[in-house]
Amino acid sequence: MAEAPQLEVWMRGPVPGIPALLQPVAHALLQAKEEVAVYMEGFDNRYLWQRPGGVAAVGFHLKHIAGVIDRLFTYAEGLSLSEAQFDYLRAEGAEMSEIASAELVAALHNRVDQAIVQLKQVDETQLTHTRYLGRKRIPTTVIGLLFHAAEHTQRHVGQLLVTVKLVEHR
Fold it and tell me: Which Pfam families would you find in this protein's record (predicted)?
């Protein structure tokens, strides 16, 4: 008998410990984590850095998603990026032939788990407080950064899923 599909994360109710206004952020990040796990299961590492039609490689998306979450959550905390974060950003597009897709998926999952812990610590009364993005110090807010981390993650998960399908059917 086939197993019934699981409801999407947002349909399962509140994520324990997450402030009410940040539930959509948690839902989107956790949904991304689940979808990446499903689509990357059994993925052939030969395709990790292929760019069909010039699109970004699956490996790039996996690295980029984790990096975006890390950077935007850092800014949401009112901090500047570290040199290690800048190094990671510069290396996101670089092929890493020595790493397996499972390692990149595990790193992404770990970063989502860390983000969930961080969301539990956010004071809802601070959500509209000004934060600054990047070296240009573009003004935004805590909630703007956290929401964009979730939205940007979802965008790249969609691109990753399409690229997985493209490379596996060549």
Answer: DinB_2
129: phi > 0 → left, psi -120 to 50 → alpha, else beta; which?
beta
Task: Kindly report the CATH class assigned to 20-168.
Answer: mainly alpha
Q: What's 123's DSSP letter? A: -
Distance CA 148, CA 134 (A): 14
Category of 7 on φ-ψ map: left (φ > 0), alpha (ψ -120 to 50) or beta: beta
Residue where the block lists tokens 């190094």 = 87
Rounded to whole angstroms, the Cα distance separating 133 from 139 reads 6
Q: Classify residue 59 as exposed, middle or buried by CB count within 10 Å of its CB (0-12, 13-18, 19+).
A: buried
Contacts of 20 (CB under 8 A, 6+ apart): 14, 124
**Per-10-residue mean pLDDT for the chain, 170 residues long?**
75 97 98 96 95 95 98 97 95 91 97 98 97 94 98 97 88
DSSP 94: S
Any idea where the domains of the chain sit in the sequence? Answer: 20-168
CA distance 133 to 72: 8
